[in-house]
Specification:
CATH superfamily of the largest domain: UDP-N-acetylenolpyruvoylglucosamine reductase, C-terminal domain
Oligomer: single chain
Mean pLDDT: 87
CATH class of the largest domain: Alpha Beta
CATH architecture of the largest domain: Alpha-Beta Complex
Number of domains: 3
Distance between the termini: 46 Å
CATH topology of the largest domain: Uridine Diphospho-n-acetylenolpyruvylglucosamine Reductase, domain 1
Largest sheet: 6 strands, antiparallel
Structural class: alpha+beta
Bound molecules: flavin-adenine dinucleotide
Strand content: 15-25%
Low-confidence stretches: 362-407
Radius of gyration: 22 Å
Number of helices: 9
Helix content: 10-25%
Amino acid sequence: MLSVIRENVRLAPYTTLRIGGIARYFADITDEDQLREALHFAEKNSLPVLVLGGGSNVLIADVGFSGVVLHIVNEGIIFHPAQKDEARVTAAAGEEWDKFVRQCVARELAGVECLSGIPGLVGGTPIQNVGAYGQEVSETIVSVRAFDRQTKQITEMTNEDCRFSYRASIFNTTERDRYIVLSVTFKLTPHGAPSLRYGDLQKYFAERSQSPSLQEVRDAVLAIRASKGMIIVPSDPDCQSAGSFFKNPMVSAAKFAEVEAAARQQNLLCEDESLPHFAMPQGQIKIPAAWLIEKAGFPKGYERGRVGISSKHTLAIINRSSATATELLTFVAQIQNQVQERFGLALVPEPVWIGLENHTPVTLPPILQKSDVRPPNTEPPEPWNLSLKPGRRFRKPEHNPLKTERKKWFE
Ligand SMILES: Cc1cc2nc3c(=O)[nH]c(=O)nc-3n(C[C@H](O)[C@H](O)[C@H](O)COP(=O)(O)OP(=O)(O)OC[C@H]3O[C@@H](n4cnc5c(N)ncnc54)[C@H](O)[C@@H]3O)c2cc1C
C-alpha cells in the first residue's frame, strides 16, 4: 500500500459539521503523482473514491466511507503578471479559500471580496458555484484544471464548459464524481471597485459619502457573516454546521402566487405585504428558505436533542454536541415535511450527502412528536410572537417586526 494512504481514519474532524464515521482508506493528496497512485490503488482494489476538500459542504454517514477518501491539499497561489484591466490568479485546489480572497484583496484585486469568510478550499468553490452577498465564483472563474477520471487525463475546462448556475455546475450535476479539481484560474480587476449589490452591504455603508475600499468591503462581509455564525469559530456551537442547509427555492410566478396565498391563508403576512422574494432571470422567483423554515415553526435557536438551528441563522442546521448523521437527517426531514405541508414546497438540501444515498426521508421522525411542531393557525411561541393572533387578520401595527426583518432573509 502507498505510504500516503492511511487506514481507518475518522472523518468527523475533517468536516465542519463534525459528523461522519470512519474512512477505510484516507490519503492527503499534495500532487498529481499521489493522486494518480491513490486512484490506481482504488481501482486495483475495486474501491469507491470520495474527493474531500475542507468538508464544509458535506454530510457524511455514521457508517463512514468504505472506500478511499482523497483529501485534496495541494498548495500554491500564482499571481500572473497583471494587464491594465485584468489580473489572472491561479490557486491550487487545496488552498484555503479565504486565504486566497485575503491575498487578492490585499493586492487590490476586485472580484471575490464579497466571498470573504466562506469556509472550505479553492477546489470546492466551482463545484456548487459558491456565492454570497451578490457575488458568485462563476463571475470570475476563467478555467478549471481537473483530472478527468473517465479519460485519466488532466484537462483544462473553460468557464462555459463548467455550465455554472445557481449553486450548480457540471461538477455537481451531469458530471458528478467525474472530475477532480486541481486548480482554478480567476480573472480579477486590478484596483476595481468593490461589489455592493447586496442590500445588507449597502446598508452597512449607507452613512458613508465615499465608496468603501475592497478591504473595507471584505471587513464588512466578515463582520456580517460573523454576526450570523457564517464563519468558522471553533469554540462556537452555532458554527458547527454546513452553512446554509437548504437552497432557496426558485419558482415560477404561478407557484409563487400559490405559496403566497398559502402564507396569507395562515395569517403569516399582513394585508399589504408580499412574501419575501427576489426576482431572478427568466421570470423565476427566489423565495428565502429561511423565511419558510421560520414560518413552519423552526425559529433561530430551535433545539431538538443534539441538533438544532443556529441561534444566529435560520438556514444553518447545527450539530449541538456529538450528534449523528441519523439525528441530523431526522431533523432535516421534519423541517422538509412541515415546509411541504404548509407551503407546498420541497426544500432541497445544499450539502452533498455521502453514504446516505439510500437514506429514505422519515415521514414522522421517531424523536419528534407531532405536538413538538406548532400546527398552522395557532399562536407561535417566542420569538414568534409577532402580533399574530390565531384566526385574526394581521392589521398594520405601529411597528411591524415582520417587515423590518424582510431584507435579512437572503443571507
Ligand atoms: C459556516 C459556513 C458558511 C458557508 N457559507 C457559504 C456561502 O456563503 N456560500 C456558499 O456558496 N457556500 C457556503 N458554504 C458551503 C461551503 O463552504 C462551500 O460550498 C465550499 O466551497 C465547499 O468547499 P469544501 O472545500 O469545504 O468542499 P467539501 O465540503 O469538502 O466538498 C463539497 C463537495 O465538493 C466536492 N469537492 C471538494 N473539493 C473537490 C475537488 N478538489 N475536486 C472535485 N470535487 C471536490 C466534494 O466531493 C463534495 O462533493 C458555507 C459553509 C459553512 C460551514
